[in-house]
Write a structure and sequence with these properties.
heterodimer; A: about 800 residues; alpha/beta; 32 helices; B: alpha/beta; TIM Barrel; 2 domains; nine-stranded mixed sheet; two-stranded antiparallel sheet; 11 helices
Chain lengths: ~800, ~300
């Protein structure tokens, strides 16, 4: 039986070749950016203000980085020096020579590093940046207790190797060119008054930096135009020659001016994208957001004028797809790699949803994008559909048809909930409607908000420490508070009260660190280019990393809600209520990893009321944990004047977090992965998908900045038109209950096991992980096992 | 009031329209040789033993007051004659190797389960299906549950073998939006041989329901060598085309229930029977369609 019946592939030869190059090229590490940045710092550091230093560095990059136009391309520009070539960012994280060896030689998520590159790193880059990178500053400024927690795996730190970013574009650069932005910036500079405005100097330096960045990106476009003309002159194929001349024309128009055509619009976005991800190594790269809505006016105009048809638009979009896939997330090491172990850079395109006026936003491009996802089957860009009650069922069905192919694309979001979440955070309705979801599942106002993920929080680990009165049993180090001997706890309330105290303690430590890091970025690492395209940075004369955006939010992402729920449920059920075990014997059993008491292990595994089965005995405990986490974090102030919000998502962090926790009372053995997102503990949801949805909807998604629910189905359950109807109805029902996001993995455990056994044959198998999709072969064995262990819902 | 229920299945998509919850009643007057829910036949809860899940801890042996269980190496033996179906061993069993098929539930408990998925019924045009076993056997509970479901505005379906008194159908016909009515064989002898009972009352009830314009989805389990001959299919076509039937569902025989018999300590008489091929199913479908009937393969 064929695992997947592929629909006829509609891509043309050009796209097939570009796609092949993108997919087959081995990722490499490029040292060019590191060298250029080092040159710029040597030239300017200490002579100009910090914003100007960053802008001049950006300009140096845009003026000198290698210009790449690959054969057959219509949309041009690479971050590195070739497809799949990733630069490094020594000002953020200066890799050691050992790091380079690890990056080069590791089994998964490697980047090949040649000897010359290693030598340059050793001789030029490290000597200049040692002790000067943001990572160095950051670690040096953390307290001993922060470091203890970080090492214990209580939380992770996003800014340790990459910069804040976590934002998405709106429609402004389809309406204005960078000459227009520069004019606005110059007008703001004109208005400054050094006598009455005490921050006029800071603002001027920032605005000057932004103006320099406008020049830089325009120059970058012109250089592509020059390169295209140079290639056109040498080109013998007349068709390609004309294409290159066209590219030259496009690149001499954008990004200086607002785009006029569909191709110019895509090229405009791509230049902005490259600018953002070259300036700094922003988390989640950058993203066009609501691409279908942004492109619609260009499409309609050109179709009406007869200069573009559907196929032409599709070809350009597929060229764009290849560009996104050509850019692997720059190499990560250590814990950052563990929390985000993937080449995916989380540029997550939103499709459908609603328009700024609140009306149905699905258009022809939305359907075209769904077709392209199905045809291209590339890791990047990530895609999601935004489903509003206002969208037609046909859109949900067509999205389900693509999801059913098993790649986990597109993921599915509840737009109406997203708008409510944003409004609850205090955003104006018109800004909320321009928002959407990005990265994995996080909400934000596109073009107007800095919504920064700061790190994952290991909820089950905090419970483990609570059960050891503040001591981490893995290291015997006391890193928590003394919240009482667990033997004294009489009931769940006692245990929860102690847990809340520990939670408070650890969240304080995390946020104390965050505040320092936020200040470091605000002062030392502005991003003047990104600031141009994020609303109100120009008006305020303030950098994106310094609170310049209209809205500023910081997220802490909770991991393992199902694991901690089931663990508490087990203790409540077996110790407090049924008294099957004493707390002492339970803790002893856990300390010995169940090895001496397999019967107790089976009781905890099989006789515990569990989250994910629409069983209030467990779900009410989930709510207690959720509310404790929410209340502890939500509304805390940030350095740049924003607020903290919680999210419930893990990326790949549930595997790492599990590896630092001993056996837990829900029957999980020491070191095994935690539950992912808000999904039930793998294999324990036994009442089918409706029960999972019911359990998951009991938490108040509207008070989060995003939650992540994965469901695995066997292909049979979603077969036929009826199967698509069931998917649509499950989605719509979950969204009626205010669920934020759901994703389906339509692949059987048998297929995954076969792929593990014979990876060569399954090179193309893409599966949903948590908030993104990845090649199954790119995943660590433990993550592969975790996905196999997720409950498979089948037909009844 | 209580009912003996052996399962409540959420996300049931083959027992009527939309996403449904199916409530399986325990106890059936028929004992079809191919029954894929053999645990549904006996009217009382029964002990089921999943041999493979047993870790040989013998906690069950210790709690059994009837001495119905005995240790057998790393497994156990069950003396079903001594078992009083109290369920104490299933409570003690850490691995769910021992489970009770069926339990007494109050109507309120059953409705609580049904109510949990209302949002899905409303979205999908689904509802609740009462199946079995034979739900008509517990007619008082069935009637009450149907009335409670209708009072909530739910779509209701009753999946029945048709083997019940007509006056019992009278009691529920106004509260049942859809009858899923099983026909196994039109020949009396064959019916008796494979199900243990006469088909007269079944066919008569079908005619009556049809005359009363009840919505009927007819289900035919296709058992190779038993009811799949051209003559029998044609006979069925003749009968059904004379009645008021919305749709016919052909349910291909499958042997996946084999293990269930073993767990119940029962023999499976169709051990060597092969499942019908897709071609065979298509043949039967086409033959019935020739009578102007609407037919689909599967639930």
């Amino acid at each position: 039986m064929p695992a997947v019946i592929r629909r006829e592939i509609g891509m043309n030869d050009r796209i097939a070749q570009l796609r092949k190059q993108s997919v087959d090229t081995v990722p490499t590490l490029s040292i060019e950016r590191a060298q250029l940045v080092t040159q710029a710092y040597k030239q300017y550091e200490g002579k100009v203000s910090i914003p100007m230093l960053r802008a001049l560095t950006f300009k140096h990059l845009m003026e000198h980085k290698t210009i790449v136009i690959n054969p057959g391309e219509l949309i041009v520009g690479e971050r590195g020096t070739a497809p799949q070539s990733a630069p490094t960012y020594p000002e953020l994280c200066c890799h050691t020579t050992e790091d380079f060896d690890v990056i080069d030689l590791r089994q998964k998520i490697f980047f090949r590093v040649d000897d010359q590159t290693k030598a340059i790193q050793r001789d030029e880059i490290i000597p200049f940046w040692r002790g000067k990178s943001m990572r160095d500053h950051l670690i040096a400024n953390m307290t001993a207790s922060w470091r203890d927690c970080y090492e214990a795996g209580i939380f992770t730190e996003f800014m340790e190797q990459r910069a804040p970013g976590h934002t998405v574009g709106d429609d402004k650069y389809y309406k204005k060119g960078f000459l227009d932005f520069k004019k606005e910036i110059e007008q703001e500079i004109e208005k400054l008054n050094d006598l009455t405005q005490m921050d006029a100097y800071d603002r001027r330096e920032q605005l000057k930096a932004m103006a320099v960045s406008c020049d830089a990106i325009i120059r970058f476009g012109i250089r592509h135009a020059e390169k295209a003309l140079e290639l056109a002159e040498k080109e013998n194929d007349l068709v390609r020659k004309a294409e290159l001349e066209k590219i030259a024309e496009v690149c001499s128009h954008v990004p200086a001016h607002a785009p006029r055509t569909f191709q110019e619009a895509l090229q405009m976005y791509w230049f902005v994208h490259l600018g953002v991800i070259t300036e700094l190594n922003t988390w989640d790269a950058f993203c066009p957001g609501k691409l279908d809505q942004h492109l619609e006016p260009f499409y309609l105009k050109e179709v009406a004028e007869g200069t573009l048809d559907r196929e032409g638009a599709k070809e350009l979009l597929e060229c764009f797809w290849v560009k996104a896939n050509n850019q692997p997330a720059p190499p990560k090491v250590g814990i950052t790699l563990k929390e985000s172990g993937t080449y995916t850079d989380f540029c997550n395109i939103n499709i459908g949803g609603i328009r700024p006026d609140g009306s149905d936003g699905v258009n022809e491009i939305s359907y075209l994008l769904l077709e392209i996802i199905d045809e291209m089957r590339t890791l990047q860009p990530s895609t999601n559909v935004q489903i509003s009650r206002k969208n037609p069922d046909r859109f949900v069905i067509e999205a389900s048809r693509v999801i059913r192919e098993g790649m986990g694309f597109p993921s599915v979001f509840n737009t109406d909930a997203v708008v409510e979440e944003l409004m609850r955070q205090g955003k104006a309705i018109e800004d909320a409607r321009v928002g959407g979801t990005s990265g994995c599942v996080e909400v934000g106002c596109f073009g107007k908000e800095a919504y920064i993920l700061t790190g994952y929080l290991n909820l089950p680990k905090i419970l483990e420490i609570t059960l050891h009165n503040g001591v981490d049993p893995r290291t015997s180090k006391k890193i928590g508070n003394e919240t009482g001997s667990p033997l004294e706890f009489k009931n769940l309330d006692d245990l929860m009260a102690a847990f809340k105290k520990q939670l408070h303690h650890f969240v304080d430590i995390k946020i104390r660190g965050n505040n320092v890091i936020e200040s470091l970025y605000a002062k030392m690492m502005p991003s003047p280019f990104l600031s141009i395209v994020v609303e109100d940075c120009i008006e305020k004369g303030k950098d994106y990393n310094n609170g310049g955006a209209r809205y500023n939010t910081r997220y802490i992402q909770g991991v393992g809600i199902a694991s901690i729920t089931d663990t508490l449920s087990s203790i409540n059920h077996h110790v407090f209520e049924n008294k099957t075990f004493t707390m002492e014997s339970l803790l002893d059993t856990l300390a010995k990893n169940f090895e001496e008491d397999p019967v107790a292990h089976q009781i905890m595994l099989n006789k515990t009321p569990r989250y994910g089965n629409d069983d209030d005995r467990a779900d009410k405990i989930m709510l207690q944990v959720f509310n404790a986490f929410h209340d502890e974090v939500t509304g805390r102030p940030t350095v740049t004047g924003g607020k903290y919000i919680i999210e419930m998502l893990p990326t790949t962090c549930h595997v790492y977090f599990g590896s630092v926790i001993g056996a837990t009372a829900e029957g999980r053995k020491a070191g095994m992965p935690l539950s992912e997102g808000i999904s039930p503990v793998q294999g324990t949801d036994r009442k089918g998908p409706t029960a999972v949805i019911k359990s998951a909807s009991k938490m108040d998604h509207l008070r989060t900045g995003g939650t992540l629910l994965n469901q695995k189905f066997t292909p049979q359950v979603v077969a036929g038109e009826e199967g698509l109807g069931h998917m649509k109805d499950l989605v719509r029902s979950y969204f009626k209950l205010d669920g934020h996001h759901i994703q389906f993995n339509v692949v059987s455990a048998d297929t995954l096991k076969a792929a593990q056994f014979d990876p060569e044959k399954y090179n193309n198998l893409i599966v949903r992980v948590a908030g993104y999709s990845d090649y199954f072969n790119n995943l660590d064995k433990s993550l592969q096992d975790e996905i196999i262990a997720r409950t498979e819902h089948h037909e009844f | 009031m209580n009912a003996t229920i052996f399962n409540i299945q959420k996300f049931s998509v083959n027992d009527g329209p939309g996403i449904r919850t199916t409530v399986f009643f325990k106890g059936c007057p028929l004992a079809c040789a191919w029954c894929h829910n053999p645990e549904s036949i006996h009217p009382q809860p029964e002990l089921v033993y999943f041999n493979k899940k047993c870790i040989g801890c013998h906690l069950c042996v210790k709690v059994c007051k009837q001495n119905a269980l005995s240790a057998d190496g790393h497994k156990i033996n069950i003396d079903r004659g001594k078992c009083v179906r109290c369920g104490a061993c299933t409570e003690a069993c850490p691995t769910e190797a021992l489970q009770m098929a069926g339990k007494q539930m109050t109507l309120a408990e059953i409705m609580t389960e049904i109510d949990k998925d209302v949002v899905f019924y409303q979205q999908s045009g689904g509802g609740v299906t009462f199946s079995g076993g034979e739900p008509m056997v517990q007619i008082d509970a069935l009637e009450a549950l149907l009335k409670l479901s209708k009072a909530r505005g739910l779509h209701t379906a009753v999946d029945t073998s048709g083997h019940a008194r007509w006056q019992d159908f009278e009691r529920i016909i106004d509260y049942t939006d859809l009858f899923l009515f099983d026909i196994k064989h039109l020949e009396e002898d064959m019916h008796r041989r494979y199900t243990g009972v006469s088909n007269k009352i079944i066919i008569e009830n079908l005619r009556q329901l049809s005359a009363r314009k009840a919505a009927i989805g007819l289900r035919l389990p296709v058992i190779p060598g038993v009811n799949d001959s051209d003559t029998h299919v044609d006979e069925l076509g003749k009968l059904l085309s004379s009645l008021n039937i919305q749709k016919i569902f052909l349910l291909p025989y499958h042997g996946i229930a084999r293990g269930k018999y073993e767990r119940l300590g029962q023999a499976y008489s169709l051990d060597s029977l092969a499942e019908p091929s897709q071609m065979e199913m298509e043949r039967i479908k086409n033959r019935l369609e020739n009578f102007g009937l609407t037919v689909r393969i599967g639930g």
